[in-house]
Fold this sequence. Notes:
- By secondary structure, this protein is mainly α.
- It has helices at 8-30, 40-61, 69-75, 78-98, 105-137, 148-168, 175-197, 203-221, 225-228.
- The protein is elongated and about 85 Å long.
Amino acid sequence: MTENDMPQDDIDVNKRSARLDALSEHLAQSLEPQKRILSVPKRLALWFAVSFVYIAAIVLVGIPLRHDVFHYLLNTSLSFDVLISFVMGCGSAYAALRLMVPVSAQELKRVVALPLVMLTVFLMWTAYRTVIDTLDSGFLEILNHYPCFDWGIIFVVIPLAGLAYLAKRGASTHPYWLHFMALISMFSFGWICLRLTCQQDHASHAFIYHFLPFVMIGLVSGLFTRQLFKSI
């Protein structure tokens, strides 16, 4: 039986079947083997190692630690700043790396719980310090210019790029939470670096030059979440 002798419905079915066969063959030929993604602890250890080496190199060759940094860590509130930020940074880095692959809604709540709690503690502590310092000496300190914003960008650019690269290896079901956790991690370690290198302790200075720039980066980069982090 020729095609002219076949009913129109059968002809349409055959054409659709042929197109599906061609599409299936094309998809099968375009597939490439992918390397298995490392576990979260291994990715976290790799990211920490690269970030530590990079930050240490910056401190050694470009932005030295503040004078008597160990004295300040032992005798001032700087130690509490660093402790809060370190726990927040580690927790949010783990959360970001975990969210690079699909997770359930219940697991999402567990993963982001610690970073959100520590972020709340950090904001309350920073607000308290800002109010107390402002009542004591006013806002005059913020008029003094320090290159802290530039330093902050230098400190976090490679760690943030590393997180973005690792995120491209996965496919997140919660890309905006992933982005938020990555930003918290970036801010936490950038804050630590600035607190250990900047000579200025006034809370209003830290709020203006150490905190707000990272908030602005987060707001702008949030517009490109889908481009930065692969999602499904």
